[in-house]
Design brief:
This protein is α/β, with parallel strands linked by helices and 292 residues long. Helix content is 43%, strand content 24%. The protein folds into two domains: 85 residues, Winged helix-like DNA-binding domain superfamily/Winged helix DNA-binding domain (Arc Repressor Mutant, subunit A, Orthogonal Bundle); 199 residues, D-Maltodextrin-Binding Protein, domain 2 (3-Layer(aba) Sandwich). The chain is built from eleven helices and eleven strands. InterPro entries: LysR_HTH_N, LysR_subst-bd, WH-like_DNA-bd_sf, WH_DNA-bd_sf. It comes from Agarivorans aestuarii.
Amino acid sequence: MAASLDQLRAFVATADNKGMAQAARQLGKHVSTVREQINNLEIDTGLDLFIRHARSLEVTPQGEQLYKSAIAMLKEAALFDANVDSILQGVPDKLTIAIDSGLIDTELDMLIAKLVANYPHMSLKILTNDTMQIKSWLTSGVVDIGLLYNTVYLQDELASETAYSFGVCRITPTQWKLPKEINEDALKDQLQLSLSFLSDIGMRDADVTSHRYMLCNNSTQILNLVKAGVGWAYLPRFVCIKSLENKEVNLYQANDDAISNWATNLVWPKEKALNPAMQMFIQGVRGFKNRN
């Protein structure tokens, strides 16, 4: 016996609405059509699915058992249809996105959630690491697309576009006793914490102003080290805004304006055609506002 999807839809709608008239309205069909599909399903299965009352229907114990299977089959059918549509649209069966760990935020989480919702059949993999590792993954084919700090130089085999920019601020440990009047020279003898990718791309001198410095490949780790009193740092404001509000670190600069602005890049291999899922990710990131 093979129940049709239309029969199962009629059965589920009737059970949910406790009546064929309401089910017919929900399905956009005539009541007689729904009645015929229910009757045929009962004949085909040999089960009594409903107890007929004068003005309503009651699902039988056998009907309740079948209901769960019907729901599962309809979900599988919907997933099958979505998979067929995705294949026709050129959506891949899997996609790997790499994001610099210092750029993770709620907006990205929401964008990833939309990707999952739009392409439920696609196997999505999210990797996080530092910018230089992500560039390596991109050139070796480990990931399909990455979001990373702008490194100025990219290998010839990689394509990119600027995403959003963000303000950078100078933070110091709350444990330090520094002059109330901002004095940058007071920091020169203190340990500075710097993102390692800046050194990797030859821009260390543009970032490091202290006589002593320590490199770290993770902005969140740098923030935690500043909280612990290890050193001071230039960090994206959106990374340390909550810590500033909670007075876990100090803002050590003349005003609240960003000391400088950095940019982020979307990067992917030139040889890889942009499929709909990648395009959705790119369009989503494009919609992010610059962080001041």
